[in-house]
Design a protein that fits this description.
This protein is mainly β. It is 3% helix and 20% strand. The chain has a 5-stranded antiparallel β-sheet, with no helix packed on it.
């Protein structure tokens, strides 16, 4: 009896059994961090380089301390070119004291001939829009596993096609016979059903057929001076290359997944909260379409 009486709540916590509210520490939290897609470029009447998708990163971290505040930042999509240079997408991130900060870089903008013949690097890189114009590099800055891929090159003939934007799982295709296809994104089932994120935009073309956006929200390219299609919001898709303007990049998203028994319900920024599965293996899914926080 004396031995039992000395083991109070603090001692139980020390053995990793419980902490306040019945939550057991440590426990894991899964996350998906997708940045905003870049804005598409333009080339004279068309043929603009497509934009790269926002960077895509996913993993799990262990929560060891009560009241750990996880700060979530969701990057906006970059503006498409209207004659000058477009914009890269905004970065998205997951950060907390005592945890590794995870940042996904915004997608690189697509190249133009009137403003910037070289596409930008980023989570995934943009496509070029000029002979010899540089393509954007993906996975910039470099992380492992890779957060994205390179954009494609502009090819003069026969359709004067701009390069496709890079996607999370595939590089953008080169133009030429048509606008380059955007690189495909990556499927993820963190929220329950499988959803594909971070597809690159399709390159524009002066003649023939514009490039298709990659799976995961990449915007289609355009022909004959039409506007490139926007990337899909909250999938981080790159904007399509066009005439005037290039397509807007799609906003990013951050999703957290935690066992329901460990869920506190303390949030800011109004994430969409859903439940997946059934007890004792039910999970709470927090989808942040804008910036906010969760206290674990």
């Amino acid at each position: 009896m004396p031995l039992l009486s000395t083991r109070g709540a603090g001692s139980a916590k020390g053995f990793g059994l419980t902490a306040g509210g019945g939550i057991s520490y440590p426990f894991d939290i899964e996350f998906l961090v997708v940045a905003g897609g870049g804005g598409g470029g333009q080339r004279n009447s068309a043929g603009g380089g497509a934009a790269g998708a926002g960077g895509y990163r996913t993993s799990t971290q262990s929560i060891t301390t009560k009241n750990t505040v996880i700060t979530v930042t969701v990057g906006d999509g970059g503006s498409g070119s209207t004659g000058g240079t477009g914009q890269n997408g905004g970065s998205s991130s997951f950060s907390a004291t005592g945890l590794s900060t995870i940042t996904s870089a915004g997608g690189g903008y697509g190249a133009t001939t009137t403003g910037q013949p070289n596409a930008a690097s980023g989570g995934s890189g943009g496509g070029s829009a000029h002979p010899g114009g540089g393509v954007g590099s993906g996975n910039t800055p470099n992380v492992s596993p890779s957060q994205g891929n390179n954009g494609g090159s502009f090819i003069d003939t026969p359709s004067y096609g701009g390069g496709g934007g890079g996607g999370a799982s595939q590089a953008g295709s080169n133009g030429g016979s048509q606008g380059g296809k955007g690189g495909n994104g990556t499927a993820n089932s963190i929220s329950g059903p499988s959803v594909t994120y971070a597809g690159g935009g399709g390159g524009g073309a002066q003649y023939g057929t514009a490039g298709q956006g990659g799976s995961g929200g990449g915007g289609n390219g355009a022909i004959d001076g039409s506007a490139g299609q926007a990337g899909t919001a909250n999938l981080g898709g790159g904007g399509g290359g066009g005439g005037a303007p290039g397509g807007q990049g799609g906003k990013g998203v951050v999703i957290l997944k935690v066992l329901e028994k460990n869920y506190t319900g303390v949030t800011t920024g109004s994430p969409v909260v859903t439940t997946s599965g059934s007890a004792p293996s039910a999970y709470k899914i927090l989808t942040f379409n804008g910036s906010g926080s969760y206290t674990a």
